[in-house]
Structures are given as structure tokens and as C-alpha cells.
Design a protein that fits this description.
InterPro entries: GWxTD_dom (IPR030959). Keywords: Signal. The structure is a single chain. With about 675 residues, this protein is of the alpha+beta class. Among the domains are: about 1-70, no CATH class; about 130-180 and about 335-415, no CATH class; about 425-525, Sandwich (Immunoglobulin-like), CATH 2.60.40; about 530-675, Immunoglobulin-like (Sandwich). It is about 35% helix and about 25% strand. The strands form 7 sheets. Strands 17, 18, 19, 20, 22 and 25 form a 6-stranded antiparallel beta sheet that branches. The longest helix has about 35 residues, at about 1-35. About 40% of the residues are buried.
Length: about 675
Amino acid sequence: MRVLVALVLFGAVPAFAQPREEASRVLAEARALIASGDDGAAYRLAGRALDGSPEDVPLLELRLELQQRGVGLTARPPFARRIARRRSAERLLRLDSTSAIAHDEIGRQRLEDYLFDRDFIKVGGGFGDVAMRHGDVLSRNDRRNYRPGTRTQEVRFNRGGRYDLAGLRATYPILGKPGMEDDLREARRSLNAAVRHGGGTYAWPLARLLIAEGEFDALLALGEAQEDDLLRAVALFRLGRTREAAGAFDVAMAAMTEDERRDLDDPARVRPDDPPRDAERFWREQDVRLLTDENERLLEHRARVAEADRLFGWPTELGRGATRGEIYIRYGAPEDRATLSEPFYPGDAHVTQGGDVMGSPRFVVWEYADGPRYVFTDPYWSGDYAIYAPSSLAFSASASADADDYIEQDERLRREMPDASQYVPPTSWPLAVLTTGFKGANGMVDLVVVTGLEADRDADIRSAVFAIRDGTPEAMTETAIESGASGATRTFVTTLAVPPGEVTVVSEVAGEDDEGGWVRERQIAWDYGTGLKLSGLLLATSVDEGRAPEPGEIRRGDAIIRPTPEAVFASGDPVAVYAEVYGLRVRDGLARYSVEAALVPDDGRPGVVQAIGGLFGRGRRRGVAVRIDASSPSADAGIPLLLDASRQRPGAYTLTLAVMDEATGETVETARAVTLR
């Protein structure tokens, strides 16, 4: 009997060994087919082999790998493909609890569920009347100031409509879905297990989770553990360690091919309708901080591209080419977001199978605080989101459809505001800046830029003011901020000589590490060359003569002016102002002129009524005014004035200055907003 048993067992060995040997051969052949680009043949070969070895783990893993690439399941709807992959992963884990690709698939699906459910707003009523209540906020195009790059523009954004997040949350208070925390917990467990068992090949979806949750310390640890310099660079940039991030990006790009480097920095991603030819010059012009060695806007762009790749794609199909990835690269992460699964308009598609409705389309809403709103839709749960616009049926049936046409908005924004920077330094210093134009020498314009910084900065501080035209600095002054203080701020004054025309004035301060602040404003440098002209109004706390200027002061002619960086004065304090008039008519060796200044409240509240004649006979006004008659031996003259606002109430005012040439009767005037508090 023992001999018989031994013979039976001995004869059984080849029977078990043969399927494993055959499976290994099939696996090698399938890998060769994949390498040659024939994924379909590899999938069919693995399927036939699994008919004979249904529990062969390497073959099951190969099939799941191909299914993740979309192979073999194309005849099924997207949600059915997802179910098939999940069943494959669960089967694998029953056979081998260390299967990295099985953990990867489970983690991917739980992460996808969590990211949708985390921002979910439960909406009832679909495209019925219950959703129509948001139609009373349908102003189609709010106009908002925006400063992309070095320009200031008036840009129209779609607002109102049925996807207004504030309105939706007020109407439908159920936010998020039950179980989403379990999804997040399971996603973490599975994705970490995939990396633990499979190494860096499976780090991509874990990085997606960390980026989506803003866990950049953990992302940095992942990048260091996997020796992924691009992940390290992204994490360092988001953690505010800009100098280290720049070095990490350099290391990562050194390992890329030339085509990969060119694609990462391609300016066409932020200028899709007018791609710049010279990428290096373009990014140099976009630099938001001119006092630092790093180009923060370029680093931000690189971080956005790397994040978009992981948030909206996979290594085989990078997310930078996905619709949401393109918008993310142009505008960054939205300040607010939501997901919905109920259509608001007739004609929006549902997921159907055999004529039966299997599910509603998915919608993702992104809102930027000072920018656009975007709505994306995935009608078939494929993961391929597109920019949303209602169907033609909706336009004929609903007045709100125009406000929800985000395709039309995107076409407009690609021209008017193709991108936006969200970069702020880790320690951001608020600045107050006022710029005033005066006539300069040789046809130039003197832009007097007054910058104020809170006085409690003890570290060494560098300051600079730049005038930028067509993206290129054409004038600059760099100094250390003097210790002279005005009130609670340090004030420094810079004069830039520029040709007439439109320029962007940048005032920047920088301290140690990456701390600092800056303000960019578009200014018109007016041509003061011919005719009677009046400069801007330089607001000040004092205007003197007969002494040398101190730190924080400026000399114009004989006047010593201590300008203020804000158009704000304490109620009860005098309001000092300095201006210059040009082109007066000189007769008998003198130019004679009259000056009147008036500080008038804007809001119409009762104020102190002065017995004044108004600005050259325009009638009595509330507020305070002063009038002087003056003369000058020159056609150009300085005008220092002091207005007693001690009896005026706090609030918004307009300061108007008018000058009349007594020889010609011609009058010029200018005005500036002022606040008393």
C-alpha cells in the first residue's frame, strides 16, 4: 500500500508542475506582446491560459493590469468595467494578500469614491422647478478686476446660474455622503499596501491622494522614499520651501529627455490661443517676484503640471492633457468645489443600459474666489470629464442656460484671462502702495511710488520698484528700506523715470528665506509735453520747504514732501497734498493762476457745509475746500496744499484739485479717492 501511494504521489508531480511551467511561458509571451504594443493579443492569450489555470496569480495580475489600461472591457459601459476590475482585485487578494496591483485597484476605486463623495451636494428635483430658485441670481457676467501676469484687466465670469455653490448649499444642506471617511481610510490602507508590496511603480495613486488632501509633508516623505525628485519638488514648493523646490525641479528635469523638459515648461498650456515662441522669455516675463533668484511663477506652473498629471491621469495617460488638468494648470486648485449627480436641465444625459436608466451624470463644480467658475460633466461615469454647457433644448426652455454655458466662458477666457497665479510666499507681508505721475526731464514721466510696510519687521529687508512694459522691466530702483517711519509703517519713496504710456508698476519687499510681499498695478504715465496739464495728486502728511529731505521724504522743486502710502487719514488730521501744473501762459515775466481744492464726502451724509464758492463757480458743496491765487516765473509750478479736515466725519471722500490759468481762462483738474477714519 505504501509503495502504491508513493507511486501515485510521484506521478502527480508533473501534473501540477506542468500548468505552472505553461503559465510562466504564457506570461513571458504576453509581456513580449505588450512590449510590441499589442495589448489586445496579450489579453486574449492570458485569458486562454486562465481557462486552464484559473487561480494563477501572475496571470490574474497581468489581466488586471491590462484591464486598468482599458483592454478587454471596451464592450462594457464604464461603470461595468469598474465592477469587473474590482472583482478581479478581490479575487486576487483572496489568493494572495500581498498582490500590489490588487491593492492598487481597490485603493484607486475607494479614492475615486471618496473624492466624489467628499464634495457631494445632495440635490433634489433635478431639472424641475425646485432648482429654478437660483434663477434670480443669474447675472450672466459679473465684471471683476483681475491681474494675470503683469496686466490688469476687466474680465467677465459666469456667475449665478444653477451651479452657484453658495445658493446650492443654502438650499440643499446635505453635504458629503455617508461612508466617505471609510472610503478614505480604505484608500490609504490599500494604496500604502500597494507601495509596500510593489514599490514605486504603485506610488502614483498614493501621490494623488496626498495632493488632493493637501498632505504635502507626507508627499515629501513619499518622494524621498521613492527617490522621485519631481514629487519632492512639488511638495517642497507647496510647503513654501521655494529655493529647495527650485533645486529639486532642476534635478528632476536633468533626468528628463529634452522633449519631456520642453513639454513640462510649454507656455502653450497657459496661452492656448496664442502660444509664445520663446518659452524662456515668456516665463521670465511672468516672474511674480523680481527680487528673488527663483522664478516662482515657473515653479508654480511645474508644480501644477505634475499635480494635474496625478490628479486627473495615470503614467500611461498624463492628466495634463485631460480637460480638468488643462484648467488646473491654467488657474490652479479651485478655492471651492462640489460634486453633483443630478442634472439641472432637460437634455442632460443619463447612464442607460438596455433602455433603463442606471445612473445620473456626474458634475464637478470649481469656483475661484476672484476668478471664474467651471462646471465639468461625466455623463457616462467614464472618468473623462468635459466642460459643461446645457443642451440646445435647455436654451430654448430656460432663461438660466446662458449663465451655465461654461464652454462659451472658456472660449472667452482663453483670450481675455488665459491663466492666473495663486502664488503667495510662506510669510506674506501686506504692502500699501500709491503711485503718482509728474512731468520728468527730456519728455519722460516721473512716477513717484510710495510703499508702506508694517514697522514691526526687524530682519534685514530689501525693497525694489520696477516699471514693466510689454513684460520687460524698463526701469527699477533697488534699496534697503530706511528706518524712517510714517505712523505704524515704514515708508520708502522711489521715483522711476519712464516714457509716456501704459506700464505696470511693481513694488516689492523681500526678507530672509522666502518671506516678502509685492503689489502690481497698471499705471498710465501721461504725456505732459504740451498744453495746460496737471500732475497726479501726491497725498502726504506734511509738505515743507527750506530743508533737506529725511528718510521717507522726497523733494520736488523747493517742496519737501512726506508722502503717505495709503489714501487714508485719521479723522481730525490735516490732509496734505502736492501737485504740479504745467504749460501756464507767462506774461510780463509771470504766470498767474488760481488753485482750488475740495474734499467732499461721497456718501451724501450730512457734513459740515463750508461757505465756499465751489470749484470755480460750480456752487456750494459739503466738505472742506481751500482756494489760493498764485504766480510763478515759470510755465510749470508746484502746488503744496493743506486741508483742514478736523470737522469732517469718517468716511469716503473725493479730493479734487482744479487749476485755472488766469491768462487764458483754461482750467484743468484731477481727483483722487480719500478715506477719513
